[in-house]
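ligand=magnesium ion
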Amino acid sequence: MASVNDSDASAEESTATVAVDGIGKRYETGRQDVQAIADVSFAVEDGEFVCIVGPSGCGKTTLFRIIAGLEDPTAGGVFLGGDRVEGPGTDRGMVFQEYGLFPWRTVSENVAFGLEQQDVSEAERETRVAEMLDLVGLSEFADAYPKELSGGMKQRVGIARALAVDPEILLMDEPFGSVDAQTRNMLHDELLDVWAETEKTVLFVTHDVEEAVKLADRIVVLSEGPGSVREIVDVGLDRPRTRTDEAFVEHAEHVLDLLH
Ligand code: ADP
Ligand code: MG
């Protein structure tokens, strides 16, 4: 870990919900070290929807895992409301590309997972699970097993599970990368509804520029590896957004230009 320096001190004073401050990550692989990301800084405000966009291999998952507390940075730090991230916590709910559902658990048992680690009564747990399934429109599938669900439904279970413990921040790493385009569009609208309803802060990683323009308040555009911030794009379009709108297309072209 890097020692505390001036910029760490300023991030610690920041009231931003998430402050990513001078993050670098070097993987020591033995034969050859890999500098995955270098000097990444940005802040996310309470209730904001921020997308992190960059080409494949630029270090998006590395950044996601560092914010999640699953990986230590080799430089800089991540601060949540001023506190340095030292590991995973229930203040951050995670959704991964590969669902990560437990195949031997039903939908409701999957959603209940995080709550089981907490000191909540069974009655409270059942109420909470029912609320979450209602939120993602899966109440009728409470007793189904993951193998009986489509990819889109599995990812809705993933979102319900992440939100069950009521985290402040929802972290998503290419969550819709494995579903077809039509389902993905539906999931975008559903996610925006969930976001509006729950007022969570969302950090959403994707390599899909249109997805980012569809969803984000702001887009953190990363350059090719080692990833660093090329520009932070303010999207500021009214929702719902239409891909064929002139302003939408202009934003998408701007982000694409930054990536090439
Ligand atoms: P992205 O998610 O943008 O595709 P990643 O964060 O997965 O990028 O990877 C960034 C770079 O770091 C890549 O060159 C990748 O090979 C390397 N990398 C990722 N994880 C590890 C690891 N555990 N050990 C060594 N190198 C890694
Ligand atoms: Mg990745």
